[in-house]
Structure formats: C-alpha cells, structure tokens
Design brief:
Layout: H1 22-34, E1 38-42, H2 46-51, E2 63-65, H3 71-84, E3 91-97, H4 98-103, H5 106-114, E4 119-125, H6 160-165, E5 171-176, H7 180-191, E6 196-202, H8 216-225, E7 232-235, E8 239-242, H9 252-255, H10 266-287
Parallel strand pairs: 1-2, 1-3, 3-4, 4-6, 5-6
Antiparallel strand pairs: 5-7, 7-8
Length: 292
Amino acid sequence: MPQTTRPVEILRSGSMACAGCGLALGMRMVLRAMGPRTVVVVVPSCVAVTSGPFPYAALGVPAFHSAFEIAAPTAAGISAALKALGKKDIHVLAFAGDGGTFDIGLQSLSGAADRNEDFIYVCMDNEAYMNTGIQVSSATPRYTWTGTTPTGNTRRKKQIMEIMAAHRMPYAATASIAFPEDLTAKIQKAKKLTGTRFIHMLSPCNTGWRIGEDMAVKVAMLSVETNVFPLYEIEDGLKFTINHVSRNLPVEKYLMLQGRYRHLKKEHIEAIQAETDRAWALLQGKAAGQAR
C-alpha cells in the first residue's frame, strides 16, 4: 500500500473549546492547511479560548493575542515586520469571530483590506457573541433566538462577503467544516496569493445553537445543502465561482435541528426560505456573469 503522510497538527489536542465545537474543528482544519510556517493573531473570543491561555496554550506556532477590534491591522503589522526582517516565507493568519469582524473590528478590517495588506483573515462566524453569553451580533440571522433577542432577532444578517468584495481585494471565500477538501483547497489557494485574503467560515456553536455535541458537522453540512450558507469564492471582487452545487434542501431541515429556532412559526420559515432563495439566485447570477 502507498505510504501516506499525516498532516501536521498545529492545534494540539486538549484545547479549552467545548466538546464538539464547530469553531475548534474549523481552526484545526485551517491550521493544518497553513502549516508550521505561520504566525497566528487571535482576539478576545471563542478563538482565544480555544487557543488557550498560558500555560494551557494549544497552538503549535507563534501567536499574538491582540485587542478585540484590531485583528486585521495587527496581522498587517506582523506581516510587514517579517518582511522587513527578510522572512518572506512565513504566513500571517488572523482568526476573529463574527463580533470582531462584522461589528467592532469592521472598521480596521476595511482599512487593512483597502490598503491590501498582506495576510489571511479567517472569520469564525458562530452568529452571536457566544463567549460572553450568547448576545446578538450583526451576524445573527433574522428570527434567531439569542440571550438578548429572546423572541427572535428582528434584523437581517449583515452580508459580510459583499462588503469584503467591494474592497476589490485579491481573494474572498466561504468555507465549511462539513466540506474539508473545499476548505483546505481555499486556504492553499489563499497562501499562494499576496494581499488581503478573507475566509468566511460558518462555525456552529453547540451551546448557542442549542445542538448536541455531535451535531456541528451535520448542521454545517445542512447550511450548505439548503443554500443558507453557499460555498463560493470571489477573486478581485469581480469573479464569482460557486464551489458546490447544493441539493437545494428546504431550509426547515437546517432550522429545526437547532434549539435557537424552535420558536419559529410557519410564516417565519417561509420568510427565511424566500430570502434564501433570492440570495441563492442572485449568487448564481453573479457566477454566471449576469451581475456586476
């Protein structure tokens, strides 16, 4: 039998993440693809909890814990410093949650992307401020239960990929823990490019989404197969490519696995389905060259 080489695990076992955490699975896959010649930036979030405080650090590469709102400029500064030292073969990777990306970190991320600073930024999107008690964020979908929206969020989810594409940056893509080959290919593609590269990864939170410890991958898979979270990439802000044609399952199959949607009525599900269908059709149009 041919010999196979096991991937180098950068995220060590025994991290402080919750059992079955979708975010930790995503971090592990990203770091595998990045390899050991990587410097990681983390911010206060579940990312920092998973990375671990001293002396329980779980990362096998150098890491810098920055302030909540400055993951992107911190990564940009480290990247520039490494280049000044002649160390051009080391990649700089920033991890931040949806709060640190969609909300408090958006201004600094936008500035870094506008300057086309050289780093890879991965948004681990669990759709709320999970680390501090499951509060609503601008990444929280409409009608979703959180600790601060007990009857359901009244606002729609911010379209972060459209915002990043508007910067005309070299590369932006969505990724999922349920599709590891696609995720790995996107990280490897991003590594070959220079400038600001952005990965948006939906990261199911077992606690905040009210799902079992063994359900993160299944829920992530259904988010893709129902078109709630399609897999695609955007190059130079203009070229859209859909990486997986879904099974077009009804959104109810995704929603009803999660306790945060148990309160939904029929009209809520129908509204979510209609909005999902519109977004999917728009994305297909962009990929076919009918938009932009």
